[in-house]
UniProtKB/TrEMBL annotation:
Belongs to the outer membrane factor (OMF) (TC 1.B.17) family. NCBIfam families: outer_NodT. InterPro entries: MdtP/NodT-like, OMP_efflux. It is found in: Cell membrane. It comes from the Bacteria. Keywords: Lipoprotein, Membrane, Palmitate, Transmembrane, Transmembrane beta strand. This is Efflux transporter outer membrane subunit. Its main location: membrane. The keyword Membrane applies. Residues 538-574 have a biased composition (Low complexity). GO terms for cellular component: plasma membrane. The lineage of its organism: Bacteria, Pseudomonadati, Pseudomonadota, Alphaproteobacteria, Acetobacterales. Coiled coil: none annotated. It comes from Novacetimonas hansenii.
Length: 590
């Protein structure tokens, strides 16, 4: 209210000076003084609320998950990869030490179609900002006209008659109706006209302020889109490598299941086994092979998903991605920064802040609509009845003066617009609070998932070792005739299931790290603005094996393993191949 009253007093004082200045203009008043006066009056007066950058709620430290990294239960070892308070690397994908992934992340910043579309949206917002900024300056235009005219005889007679009545000494000048003949004449005119709204109440400045904040909204939306696409690339890449690992396990199990079927057929031929065991071995082989088409279809879909993210046609990346490689490992230390940096890093928080800024400026713009709008109009040019006289100083014509528009009655439109803008501002403030709160939930959930999945991985690794030992015992006891073949099959299925879960967990750890970096808002600093690629340049990245992962998958063992055969006469098989990937003590499993 104080600011508004001050602006009103300043405006009324200025209007008195305008009236005085209009009289002084006629007497040769200096335009330099007028311009300086206008600049001083309009510089610091803007109605409506001013935007103050909100201070988001920030905890002193990250909650539960960070404590969970150091607090372990009795007999439980700490997780291999722990978070630190160091600032995260903007190029977070390099921590996986996978050159293919790093290259894909660099490509998505330039080749993804959604990211490229946002470049045009940013160009649109900059153009809108330029349009809004033009309102702050005078608008000038040049015009020229030519007309061939003839005035009405009646009009001329009326004018002369009025003159004769007022001045009797001029009697006889008016022609008779039959004698009156008005000649044709030409009228030439050119001029330069200017108009400028004196922004007394800050309407134009608030409009430009809102446009600048809206441009910032688009910019932060583009950054958020880039981070989202980078995280999507990393997750799809982890899933692809996990599918390849699952397919490798199934293929090894298929080969061993085939050898198991051959072995049981040989044992049956020598009377050492029943046909039931042969059919069970055949069923195990078919069950293993049946899993391959689904994994191959899943693998093709993941390649196409990455191709789509790169703006490529289907299967464009097949030659490069279908070369089997390990699941990218996570680093032993994961820097996540300090909580006070989160609001600066998250584009969605900065976007919500810019939305609040724009809504606040629009409230001021709506308030300014209640006040008079003052416009200065000016023009200078030449007018003549002959083209030859155009340009001579005595043919000059000019005009200058203010115009004022006061909204007396608008049917409630202005009040309704002000209420709308105030409601939008309150909504934007709540949206900002919700965005900040959601950001902290995202980080907390990502930290918890990253830590707990590592514990889950450790339990699964122990389970794999236990099921492998169980299979080895079942093989030995089956060879000695102590258990049936069903015990071996059950141990094989358990090992296959636990190996599959372990592979899924290994990929989930890396995917949860991606989720954590996505929640922290990191990644755009190294790829925004977009780099300009050289024409025709291509990047070839050799396929290498990632570095040792602190969260590693133990040597996988196919679930279907051959059953040992006892020594038999007559050329019957006496032994079976060892369990692939299983440790041995210098002997072949019986």
């Amino acid at each position: 209210m104080i600011s508004r009253n001050r602006c009103v007093r300043t405006g009324l004082s200025y209007w008195r000076h305008v009236k005085q200045g209009a009289a002084l203009v006629v007497r040769g008043f200096s335009w330099r003084t007028a311009v300086v006066g206008l600049s001083v009056v309009t510089a610091g007066c803007a109605v409506g609320p001013n935007f103050h950058k909100p201070t988001p709620w920030t905890p002193k430290k990250y909650g539960g998950p960070t404590n969970m990294h150091t607090e372990t239960k009795a007999g439980e070892k700490p997780v291999a990869s722990q978070v630190t308070s160091d600032m995260p690397d903007p190029a977070w994908w390099d921590c996986f030490h996978d050159p293919i992934l790093s290259d894909l992340e660099r490509r998505v910043a330039t080749d993804n179609l959604d990211v490229r579309r946002f470049a045009y949206r940013m160009a649109e917002s900059r153009a809108e900002l330029r349009i809004a900024g033009a309102e702050r300056f005078p608008a000038m235009s040049a015009s020229g006209s030519y007309a061939r005219q003839q005035y009405s005889t009646k009009m001329l007679q009326r004018i002369v008659t009025d003159i004769e009545q007022e001045h009797p000494e001029l009697q006889g000048l008016a022609p008779s109706p039959g004698q009156a003949k008005i000649p044709l004449f030409n009228q030439w005119r050119d001029s330069i006209d200017a108009t400028w709204e004196v922004d007394l109440w800050g309407r134009v400045r608030r409009q430009y302020e809102a446009a600048a904040a809206s441009a910032q909204v688009t910019q932060e939306a583009r950054r958020g889109m880039l981070i989202s696409r980078q995280a999507e690339v990393a997750r799809d890449y982890m899933d692809l490598r996990a599918t390849q690992e699952q397919l490798r396990i199934v293929m090894e199990n298929r080969d061993v299941a085939q050898r198991m079927l051959d072995l049981n057929q040989q044992r049956y031929a020598h009377g050492m086994s029943s046909d039931l065991n042969v059919e069970r071995a055949r069923a195990q082989l078919e069950a293993t092979v049946a899993r391959m088409p689904q994994l191959e279809q899943q693998l093709a879909s993941q390649v196409n998903a990455l191709s789509m993210l790169m703006g490529e046609p289907p299967r464009a990346l097949s030659d490069r991605l279908l070369v089997a490689s390990a699941i990218p490992p996570v680093p032993p230390a994961v820097p996540i920064g300090v909580p006070s940096e989160l609001a600066r890093r998250r584009p969605d928080i900065r976007r919500a802040e810019a939305n609040l800024h724009a809504a606040t400026a629009q409230v001021g713009e709506a308030v300014a609509e209640f006040y008079p709008r003052v416009t200065i109009n000016a023009g200078f040019g030449f007018e003549s009845l002959s083209f030859r006289d155009m340009g001579f100083w005595n043919a000059k014509a000019w005009n200058v003066g203010p115009s004022i528009t006061l909204p007396l009655f608008q049917g409630g439109r202005l009040r309704g617009q002000l209420e709308l803008r105030k409601s939008e501002q309150k909504e934007a403030a709540l949206a900002y609070q919700q965005t900040v709160l959601q950001a902290w939930h995202d980080v907390d959930n990502a930290l918890t998932a990253y830590t707990d999945e590592q514990r889950h991985h450790d339990f699964l690794a122990a389970q794999v070792e236990a099921t492998r030992a169980s299979l080895r015992l079942a093989q030995d006891q089956y060879a000695q005739g102590l258990v049936t073949y069903l015990s071996v099959l059950d141990a094989q299925r358990q090992l296959l299931s636990s190996q599959s879960e372990l592979t899924t967990s290994t990929a989930a750890i890396s995917a949860n790290l991606v989720r954590l970096y996505n929640a922290l808002g990191g990644g755009w600093e190294t790829t925004y603005p977009l780099p300009t690629p050289k024409h025709g340049a291509t990047t070839k990245t050799p396929v290498t094996t990632p570095a040792t992962n602190p969260v590693t998958t133990p040597a996988t063992t196919p679930a279907t393993t051959p059953v040992a055969a006892s020594s038999t006469p007559g050329g019957a098989p006496t032994s079976t191949p060892p369990i692939p990937g299983a440790p041995t003590s210098g002997r072949t499993p019986a």
